[in-house]
């Protein structure tokens, strides 16, 4: 199950940055900029963890803690403070905070604390086998198209080996998911899977991200830091957007991969590491090599096997499978009970080009699940972009209100009337038709007015 985090922070730039970063780490994240907004969100849903600034425009984080305690909510809270507010952090711990981190926040330290706080809270530790099963059946879909069949043929072949895999494909095609899948199907499945987004690390911090550093080795190195190579030891290291690494870091990376040993920045001690490397890119690395931006020797090292991710438009047969799969997920997340997509919506989705691939489909389905008023998602809820690309027939169908069979249509009308206490205007709104159409249908089905 995806874990959810509520960030309570009035510095919006910092909150957005944290949200993006935690999203990349697999968490579902919401933000609130005031204590009041956070409380409102907390009354509508539960979160696995709250990450709150100590100082907020309305009330401080301590108030949030006592409010949670009064409601007997056990959601763990991590408080973020500046060094000057350390007394506040101590008070927060006394008030029941699970932990605190000082600003500027060290990403590694924060992630470790988040994981600890959530795992202490849930106390249910999945065995590796269970989590493998979970990943396979609940969150992952292979698809049935020829392109999917070929892809997973290769995935199944390469996963149990030690080969370095380069996953090439456009944004949102599921590269990180496939990397995870390779890990899950390998002998390293019960060891760590560490993902690094090479596109988002500042150039001068990249080496420290990979290899770690010792305290004081450069300005800002306030504590010892374990790098991704060490963290992934025994498991899989996933380097996303590998084409974005600077030339110097490429050299260091190549050396580490060849020698299977690393040194933390500022340390002389060599540490042996055993990692399986999976990388991903949406660039043409051969072109980058010819332009002198990517080292050819590194390319061969990371690319013992290439997987090409098909674009969603090239796996037509999978579009509706994924749409329904994402609908199930969205139903669970939003506590809705939609049955499916109506005929026009299904047709429009199959005709659309999906430039943002699976990610775009997932987002659109989630939004539509939230907006849908009947039992089925209609083309209207899929948004203008898809409507514009729909065939004239499908566009027509969205106005016609004819469902697949009359019995279903009659039942929908009766349900809508019941839900709205027989209010025709509201029932028509709920059904997404105008009042005149509703009256015609009432006559057609002999429904008493
Ligand atoms: N096989 C799959 N089964 C279920 N969901 C998937 C699958 N592949 C991708 N998704 C969904 O699509 C979203 C995008 O996938 P992912 O992040 O792996 O794409 P990506 O190619 O790595 O994108 P980017 O290049 O932008 O990082 C994921 O958040 C996931 O929810």
From TrEMBL:
GO biological process: phosphorelay signal transduction system; regulation of DNA-templated transcription
Pfam families: AAA_lid_14, HTH_8, Response_reg, Sigma54_activat
Alphabetized PROSITE patterns for the sequence: RESPONSE_REGULATORY, SIGMA54_INTERACT_2, SIGMA54_INTERACT_3, SIGMA54_INTERACT_4
4-aspartylphosphate PTM sites in chain numbering: 53
The Sigma-54 factor interaction domain, residue ranges: 141-370
Name under which the protein is recorded: Sigma-54 interaction domain protein
GO molecular function, one term: sequence-specific DNA binding
Keywords attached to this entry: ATP-binding, DNA-binding, Nucleotide-binding, Phosphoprotein, Transcription, Transcription regulation
Nucleotide-binding in keyword set: yes
Domain Response regulatory: 4-118
InterPro entries: AAA+_ATPase, AAA_lid_NorR, CheY-like_superfamily, Homeodomain-like_sf, HTH_Fis, P-loop_NTPase, Sig_transdc_resp-reg_receiver, Sigma_54_int
């Amino acid at each position: 199950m995806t874990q959810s985090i509520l960030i309570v922070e009035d510095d919006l730039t910092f909150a957005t940055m944290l949200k993006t970063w935690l999203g990349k780490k697999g968490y579902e994240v919401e933000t609130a900029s005031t204590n009041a907004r956070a409380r409102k969100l907390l009354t509508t849903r539960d979160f696995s963890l709250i990450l709150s600034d100590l100082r907020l425009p309305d009330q401080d984080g301590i108030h949030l803690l006592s409010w949670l305690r009064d409601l007997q909510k056990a959601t763990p809270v991590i408080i973020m403070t500046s060094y000057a507010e350390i007394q506040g952090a101590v008070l927060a711990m006394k008030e029941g905070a699970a932990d605190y981190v000082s600003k500027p926040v060290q990403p590694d330290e924060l992630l470790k604390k988040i994981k600890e706080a959530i795992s202490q809270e849930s106390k249910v530790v999945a065995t590796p086998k269970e989590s493998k099963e979970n990943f396979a059946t609940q969150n992952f879909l292979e698809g049935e198209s020829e392109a999917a069949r070929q892809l997973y043929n290769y995935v199944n072949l390469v996963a149990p080996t030690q080969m370095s895999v380069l996953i090439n494909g456009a944004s949102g095609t599921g590269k990180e998911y496939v990397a995870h899948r390779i890990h899950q199907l390998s002998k390293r499945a019960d060891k760590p899977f560490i993902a690094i987004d090479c596109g988002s690390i500042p150039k001068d911090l990249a080496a420290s991200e990979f290899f770690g550093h010792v305290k004081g080795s450069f300005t800002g190195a306030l504590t010892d830091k374990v790098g991704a190579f060490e963290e992934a030891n025994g498991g899989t290291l996933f380097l996303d957007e590998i084409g974005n690494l600077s030339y110097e870091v490429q050299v260091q990376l190549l050396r580490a991969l060849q020698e299977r040993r690393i040194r933390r920045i500022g340390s002389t001690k060599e540490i042996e590491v055993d990692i399986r490397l999976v990388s991903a890119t949406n660039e043409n690395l051969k072109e980058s090599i010819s332009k002198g931006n990517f080292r050819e020797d590194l390319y061969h090292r990371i690319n013992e096997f290439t997987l090409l991710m098909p674009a969603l438009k090239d796996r037509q047969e999978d579009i509706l499978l994924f749409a329904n799969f994402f609908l199930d997920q969205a139903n669970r997340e939003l506590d809705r009970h939609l049955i499916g997509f109506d005929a026009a919506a299904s047709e429009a989705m199959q005709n659309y080009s999906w430039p943002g691939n699976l990610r775009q489909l997932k987002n659109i389905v989630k939004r539509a699940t939230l907006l849908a008023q009947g039992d089925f998602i209609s083309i209207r809820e899929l948004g203008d972009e898809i409507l514009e690309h729909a065939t004239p027939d499908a566009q027509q169908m969205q106005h016609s209100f004819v469902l697949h069979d009359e019995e279903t249509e009659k039942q929908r009308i009766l349900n809508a009337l019941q839900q709205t206490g027989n209010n025709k205007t509201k029932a028509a709104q709920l059904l997404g038709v105008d009042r005149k159409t509703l009256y015609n249908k009432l006559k057609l089905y002999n429904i008493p007015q």
